[in-house]
Model the fold of this input.
Amino acid sequence: MILLDRVSKSYNRRGPALERISLHVEPKEFVIIVGQSGAGKSTLFKLLTREEKPTTGKIIVGGIDYEHLKDRDIPLLRRKIGVVFQDFKLLNNKTVYENVAFALEIAGISSAEIKHTVPKVLDVVGLKGKENAYPLELSGGERQRVAIARAIIRQPKILIADEPTGNLDPKHAWDVIKVLEKVNRFGTTVLLTTHNQEIVNALKRRVVTIKDGHIVSDRAVGQYRGN
Amino acid sequence: MKDHKYITLERIIKNGFVSFGRNVWLAIAAIAMMAITLTILLFAIVANTTFNHTIKDITSHIDVSVYLKDTVTEAQRDKLIGDVKHLDNVNSVSYVSKNDALKQYIKQNANNPDLLSAISQTDNPLPASLNIKPKDPNQLQTIKDFLDKPEVQSLQSDPTSYSGDRKAAIDKITSATHFFQQAGVVGIIVFIIISMLIIFNTIRMAIFNRRDELVIMRLLGASTAYIRGPFIVETMLYGAVAAIISLTICWALFRVASSTLQASSLGLLDIGYSSRYFSDHLFSILTIQILVGILIGAASSTIAARRYLRLNRQ
Done:
């Protein structure tokens, strides 16, 4: 599903953010990526969503070779990858329903289909009844679940969650993680980064640890390794 | 796929209208400036046609009168007419006999018995004449050269009349028209540039205000057209609104002008004609204004969107 082959990325001046990273993720896998801030996790995600181009190396996601990806096809790529951010990135002037529908609107989905799909997805993330609330009226965990609903509504093959629990208290963090596991059970490949040791250790999933731009460990059932 | 494109286009237009509604206060300067530009454009068009109309009107009245001595024989006369007809710039030649001249004189002065009695008491003093209509009133030199030849001169009783005043007037109008045309073009260009800069800035602010939303749209995979399109639709609406405002103002102005000036000639500008032209061509003028407004809007917002929404690189 995701293949990175000796991928390096360096920004000017500073040393390489990622150096010769090779990573293979199978379809329907749930992979946790662990690393200190500045280790290169964000760069990795930006490479996957094609916000950045690798300096060298090969990236293939869902059969698309990024080397041959044209600029105008980037939006199509992004519609196939769901992304969830630490700071939610919701539109605060739109309701929960509108925020989720937004992802379908920009993809040119018909209004009838949007009306049909949005409530279902809100149900999956446990936000039934909150359709008309605005993001600022919700708790952090609820907001993050809106973001997840928005990310999964187009049924992406891959969901990238970048520190989705970073701003949440433990209870809400677990709510979000449970939703991610549910999404994964439905068949979506999930890439999750987190700092939360407790979550990493409890999930018993594959853990990839990045340090200083290198993958330092990759365990099938991993544990959070301290610094 | 075509269905998706249709839905997307529909949403781009809808979002353009929504953001027009949202930014209309922000856009007031841009709309006002565009309305001024379009008004200048409108005045330029109307003034230009009015000038041309005036020139044409006066030109059609210009002629050259050659007064013949009473002693000129029919043969001399016919030869002269034939020669004049063969000149380059001559459109037509008509002969006015002494009797015709007298009839015209009586007709013109029907209300003036003193002048009429003065004429009837003597023999008909009016000379026969040739009335030459030139093709181009600005090129009378060939006709003049011919008429100034001694053998032709000897047939004439009075100096040739070149409608001299009219010629001078035409020259003035023509040069004024050229001046106004040039000034109009320069003015329009300057105002279009100013409008574009203001629209450019307005769109820049609109983009800045919605920065978060645009970043999210980009991350969720909105296409470039989907993100830029609404801004372009929005400014096209500015253009359309400005066109309607401008036309309304001009319509009111012409109403006032034509009623207070009572369709009289105001120097070189025949306001009556301007006003008639304006109301006769109201629809095409509106169409031109809306098109120009939309074009200015689309051009400047396309540049602004390209400049400030560098979508693929961020």
